Structure prediction request, 402 residues.
Amino acid sequence: MSDTAALFTNRELSWLEFNQRVLDEACDPSVPLLEQLRFLAITAANLDEFFMVRVGSLLTAIRAGEMANDPSGMSPLEQINAISIRTQKMVADQYHIYLDQLEPKLAEAGIRRRRINELNDRQIDFVDTVFQEQIQAILTPIAVHDPSRFPLLFGRTVNVVVQLKGKSEADPWRFAVIPFGRYDLRYITLPSVGGYEFILTEDAIALMVQRFFPGEEILATVPFRVTRNADLTVSDEDGADLLAEMEDVLDDRKDSFCTRLEITQNVTRPILEFLKTLLRVGERDVFLVPGPVGLSELMQLSQVSGFDQHLYPSWTACLSPKIDPAESIFDTMKSQDVLLHHPYESFEPVLRLLSEAADDRDVVAIKQTLYRTSRNSPIVKSLVRAAENGKNVTVIVELKAR
Prediction:
């Protein structure tokens, strides 16, 4: 290692220590329970992004034979190996926090995850109904005869692999995969007396899996989750084609190579070897977990209604004393300068400004920079309405924002 390299810390390992500080909040007893759950979900979502972009970038460099050292003196391969060791430890800590600390406290608070063997008769009947009316109607098992020709599995979605008994001694088992795709019913709310009880969809599938394979002998049912490389190159040379290139990149992300395989630790060896072959991953890329795969989806659980006492008090932004809600924003701006301090003061005046501008006959053009938007963005709706009203609308949008 050079003298200069000794002055630097590898940026990927440094970022992981940042994520560790977020994870520390998830086990801080002074933090409200559902806020702890949110912090845990955030660390999992952070790791998703990390494996998609940073690990994906390093693996791409290795595949391309680019082995130059970073400023800290580490080659891409050394970084990948160090990342693997650190993230395996971090994931183990995440599941320790969830299973040994948060889940028991959630149960005490009235939020209970039910395993298959914990369901009462009423709940079993309910799961049976949900399976018939929703799950079986949407999800389709796919038999795998040739892994090289297997259909796409979306990244960051849960799937279930099923091991079935084979037809002969030479063919002792067969495999099928039930992909969830973008199906978002991860938590099935169960009928209960008080509190909130739920079962994971993958557990409901395990309970009812024979319905998918009548007459077959089921040997194992195991959930897994794939993270794919999202660090794909976009050329900035031809600005006119950038939007088209970004569309191509988003399509390419769907079937890019796998950077991580998360699978429950009760997986059988045949299933594990099958998935490693199917997804072309090695032992270093496999994360065997003792609980539900995809902890980022715990964010949904933190939003269950009726448990506000386990959250921080909600913050309501103040209204600016310089803005009269009954007066046009344009009239207010004519009379005085207005400085809004976000997030302490409400963003509503900005939204109202764009909404009024979209309909004001004296406004002929709107020009702005829009870094990122939310779903059903009121800003975008106002801009669209302005364009429909004949105004010249020009917006710079960051297409490559992470």
